[in-house]
């Protein structure tokens, strides 16, 4: 097996744009540096939260390049693969490998709903082409493809498949994976408001969304859980949970970019057809963030 063992907090970073929808390189570098200074252990570019579906292949490579520049070797940078065909995904992997990414997160095709046989073959093909560690993003709620424990058993002979981002929304899946496969894969909880539960069941890390704006708080939750300080972790998690709910939404991009703006670590600029929140939706997020900031535990506060 490959020696890579990813653990900890890996934010799925938002893609920073200017008002005219051009990629904001300076804003991206600033935001990534903010997260690294607050203790994150790695990051993933251009996932669902990163508005991958609105970016060209060349733009995704540009974001990966910017992230690598910002990280400057301090943490691993993973490139998310979500192309509409295996052919295009292979082209993207080739380009990202040339840039020097540390590995890949592989999503199902965002258009075609593959069956398990097709999805497993896609993962295997991309992993073998990458010759780099791969994390499989399993999110049947959003993408209608579910690679179950028995499918991950079949993929276990592919040495490059190192990790799973578990986003079924059913926390029992973590135990089912461990029972079927032991420690063969690193397991990252991909549902923000199941973070405590996932870590309690033995997840190796969190692939976080809200962590983009509250990185030190998210790292503290992970550290407390790994240290067995469950009561302290639970108090922190209860403070975070109203924020974490905002990631589990069809408007997660709008929600989390508004959080970034309210906290002072980003803007709301996004690519259409998405538009900034208005009316009751906006007021609700603003109220959640206002309360969170007022009650923020000072000992875990992210440093600006």
UniProtKB/TrEMBL annotation:
Keyword Lyase set for record: yes
- Per UniProt, what is one GO molecular function of this protein? N-acetylneuraminate lyase activity
Provide the alphabetized UniProt keywords. Lyase
The record's listing under InterPro entries reads: Aldolase_TIM, DapA-like
Q: Which Pfam family name is an example for this entry?
A: DHDPS
Q: Which domain of life is it from?
A: Bacteria
Q: What is its EC number?
A: 4.1.3.3, 4.2.1.41, 4.3.3.7
Q: Which family does it belong to?
A: Belongs to the DapA family.
In its UniProt entry, what is this protein called?
Dihydrodipicolinate synthase family protein
């Amino acid at each position: 097996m490959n020696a890579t063992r990813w653990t900890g907090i890996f934010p799925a970073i938002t893609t920073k744009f200017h008002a005219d929808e051009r990629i904001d390189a300076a804003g991206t570098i600033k935001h990534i540096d903010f997260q690294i200074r607050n203790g994150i252990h790695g990051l993933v570019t251009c996932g669902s939260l990163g508005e991958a579906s609105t970016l060209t292949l060349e733009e995704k490579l540009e974001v990966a390049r910017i992230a690598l520049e910002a990280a400057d070797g301090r943490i691993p940078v993973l490139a998310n693969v979500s192309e509409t065909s295996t052919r295009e995904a292979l082209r993207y992997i080739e380009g990202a490998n040339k840039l020097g990414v540390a590995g890949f997160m592989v999503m199902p095709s965002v258009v075609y709903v593959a069956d398990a046989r097709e999805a497993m073959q896609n993962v295997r093909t991309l992993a073998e082409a990458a010759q780099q560690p791969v994390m499989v993003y399993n999110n049947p709620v959003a993408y209608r493809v579910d690679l179950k424990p028995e499918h991950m058993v079949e993929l276990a002979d592919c040495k490059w498949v190192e990790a799973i981002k578990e986003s079924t929304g059913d926390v029992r899946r973590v135990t089912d994976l461990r029972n079927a496969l032991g420690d063969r894969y690193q397991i990252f909880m991909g549902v923000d408001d199941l973070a405590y539960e996932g870590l309690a069941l033995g997840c190796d890390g969190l692939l976080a969304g809200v962590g983009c704006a509250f990185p030190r708080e998210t790292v503290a939750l992970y550290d407390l859980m790994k240290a067995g300080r469950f009561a302290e972790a639970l108090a922190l998690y209860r403070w975070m949970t109203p924020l974490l709910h905002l990631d589990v939404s069809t408007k997660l991009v709008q929600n989390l970019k508004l959080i970034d703006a309210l906290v002072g670590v980003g803007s709301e600029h996004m690519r259409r057809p998405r538009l900034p929140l208005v009316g009751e939706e906006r007021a609700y997020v603003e109220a959640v963030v206002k309360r969170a900031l007022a009650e923020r535990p000072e000992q875990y506060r992210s440093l600006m």
